[in-house]
Amino acid sequence: MKREGHIYEQMAVWENIVEAERISTNRKMRNPGVIRHIGNRWRNLIEIQQFVLNGTMRTDEYQHEQRVSGQDKLRDIAKLHFHPSHIQHQLITMAGNRRIDRSLIRHTYASRKGYGQILCATEMKKSLSKYRRTERWYGQGDVCKYYDNIPHSLIREDLERLFKDKKFVDTFMEPFERFAPEGKGIPLGIRPSQSIGNLTLKDFDHFMTEENKCADYKRYLDDFMFTGATKGEVKRKMKRAIKYLHDLGFNTHEPKIHRISEGMDMLGFVYYGVKNDMWWRKSDKKRWLRHRSKVTNKKRLRELDDAAWGMLKWGNTHCKRLWCMKTGRELPKKYMGVRYKNTGIKRTERKDSNGVPFIDEPKIGMEMLTKFGKAVECDRCLRGIKTSHGEGRYALRVLFMDNWYKLIVNSVEVKNFFDDMLRNNVTRLMVAFKDDGNKHYVVDLDQVEILEVDGRKVIEYGDKIVFEDTKQEVLFH
């Protein structure tokens, strides 16, 4: 694994300091600390730059606040004054996060760009739905008081394997050493802790996927799960997993080993291994209904309902019906098609004046796909679309996180690429987009994969692309 160097100097670059401030203040403009910072913005940013250049970055004294989490657990939250600690911590995280993220496997979620709670939940649903016709067991475990028991020696060892810049490693460790001088525990509530929470169990991820051979393995911070064909198989693998965690110095809660058909509770949802059968957790539903029953302010009531919809919309049809019934509101437009599917009524396909079908799907922006960073499936491209922004746009039908969306593009490079695809009768492909600078989007050619030509599946055969059914070579123009 190649280590990176000269990281500390990057934190003194003015553009990086300004970007760290932008991220730190995002959606916090009413925070008193942010308001005070804005009043002395330039002086504060210059001060932070001098801290970096002089090697005097220090974390303020921590203040502690007891707060009840979403799972009704009382947690100790570490709080700091906004200036300079919040911006400094964001700056440290930005400098090291790219290398830290590259060291993590795709089965690791939480506090990663494009790898959040919802993606983990939907990927889990997809994995479990494969077993809806067979009996399958799952194992689920987690660490006791994870943040309180992370040893600083383990954090430093992991960072030194990624970075050869000792000054940067010492700077990254400073917030943790100030919080717990005895050398064990990291604060809950600061930005560097989120990255370290993923990094500390990086080797555990490799052990579970490569040595323990756990199928459908996923980890969200300290919670992990996997599946097995029999109860005995899951027990054996869970025993090895717990031993590995104990050797690292962690204690674990009693693991759960059950049939998938009995329901698996994780990430706020309950899964039963049936396709599209993902229920929002009952306790969270009760909490939402209890809170909204005590609210009379219409604006606050709508905020509560919108927050609940953020989770309920990923659940099954019953979750969406509950939301409609309790709020008295209709489903948002992009979910209206659910009613047609449930009743078996086929929707009439809309066509333009030339007889070309519309892409009748909810819209998605290019910015969302570039943040996702992965290839998405595309099965339709319409040219010459007129929108409110002008003529000559292209409309693409793309599959993103198990849902179809309409993507409007006007980039010359993207349009030329799809012109080539249409010229060669490509009807389905995997394609990824990237920002080439200043929101100038292009196709990431390294991730392009052609799936169908003339509606027929194609595969790679040697150094050629052939039709899957006849093995006849596909001739592109």
Automatic annotation (TrEMBL):
One of its GO terms (molecular function) is RNA-directed DNA polymerase activity. Keywords: Nucleotidyltransferase, RNA-directed DNA polymerase, Transferase. Pfam families: RVT_1. It comes from the Bacteria. The keyword Nucleotidyltransferase applies. InterPro entries: DNA/RNA_pol_sf (IPR043502), GrpII_Intron_Splice-Mob/Def (IPR051083), RT_dom (IPR000477). The keyword Kinase does not apply. PROSITE patterns: RT_POL (PS50878). Signal peptide: none annotated. Residues 1-271 form the Reverse transcriptase domain. PANTHER family: NUCLEAR INTRON MATURASE 1, MITOCHONDRIAL-RELATED, PROTEIN YKFC. Belongs to the bacterial reverse transcriptase family. This is Reverse transcriptase (RNA-dependent DNA polymerase). The lineage of its organism: Bacteria, Pseudomonadati, Bacteroidota, Bacteroidia, Bacteroidales.
